[in-house]
């Protein structure tokens, strides 16, 4: 499969760079020159396959979590929504500590290995009801080491000036969504049909598979050093923090926090609405609730290649969209998706809406997601100071922590509002994030330009 962006983005008629050839003669960061896989370095395939299985375990468990708490543990909706939000928040808070530990002491490779092992143990613990809260805490702890250390290795796969680096995070995003697509189908079906613990066990197997792939593919990954090792070696010292850079990243993080308050409802209140407010009948068959959660990653896989082709054509024509503007457009699209749900819910009243409306919601929602989330992760990784890659990527996940916590709090309003009014509130949150991101665009452009001039 040839990905858009695998060749130079310099435009037609210009000479191809040395990085456009199938084989680069110069090794990068200790990785010997190898024939590319899917137009990208082999290491990228190893990284997204590893995260594909990690996402399989995460989304598989997430697809079951709210249903498990309300139907098996018999928790109230408000309490279940808060536990869901608190868990996802903690899973994205621990990476800020794990990123520092990886950069300064463990190194990214060891951090990924240790973190994945802890997460696998936590997923298997989910199969035992008395260990429920301990299992959630274990998964969150392992995630702290794993999550920032894996994608922060992507930049190190490319030599300076390699045009493929600009598209790497979008390709990576497709890979990890394969796991998100398969998880509700496999873990969700096992949980609903055969028992919740079978679904949780399948998620644990997926995490173990990801760890195995990472260990077997280590020769394709770049050699890296911790910051403390470099200082002790006397070769360099960590650079001073750029105050303006961190302030801008913090502002972007605030915008993403607001956006996540609406975005994360897909696995929470939207899932509850799919179970009670949607007619899931298809002839004589009832579509399982968890299957709708597979629509989002499936659409990510289908829509990313044409979107990448569109963005590349715009870049070749000199009309590329700046990251902040693209993120703002994505937030507006997600807001539009929630406007659709609000109108459908108001129209349905006390009855049920057709499942095709929910499918249309996921289509608009996913297009918006592709505009904002890979762009945000790529922005944080690209602006990362030297030897602080995992820490800066962890800062991106810290925004997800704050957003997930706010989503849990917003989710508690579900039982106190009409469904239509609630979805309208989510639309307003997404629109507010879009306005703030658009206002940040000049500052982000200035910092990005200064970094490129260095």
UniProtKB/TrEMBL annotation:
GO terms for cellular component: plasma membrane. The keyword Protein biosynthesis does not apply. It is found in: Cell membrane; Membrane. One of its GO terms (biological process) is oligopeptide transport. It is a multi-pass membrane protein. InterPro entries: Dipep/tripep_permease, MFS_dom, MFS_trans_sf, MFS_Transporters, POT_fam, PTR2_symporter_CS. This is Peptide MFS transporter. Residues 43-445 form the Major facilitator superfamily (MFS) profile domain. Keywords: Cell membrane, Membrane, Peptide transport, Protein transport, Transmembrane, Transmembrane helix, Transport. GO terms for molecular function: peptide transmembrane transporter activity. NCBIfam families: yjdL_sub1_fam. The chain crosses the membrane at residues 52-70, 82-102, 131-150, 171-191, 197-216, 245-263, 291-311, 331-349, 355-381, 393-414, 420-440. It comes from Sphingobium limneticum. Its main location: membrane. The keyword Cell membrane applies. Belongs to the major facilitator superfamily. Proton-dependent oligopeptide transporter (POT/PTR) (TC 2.A.17) family.
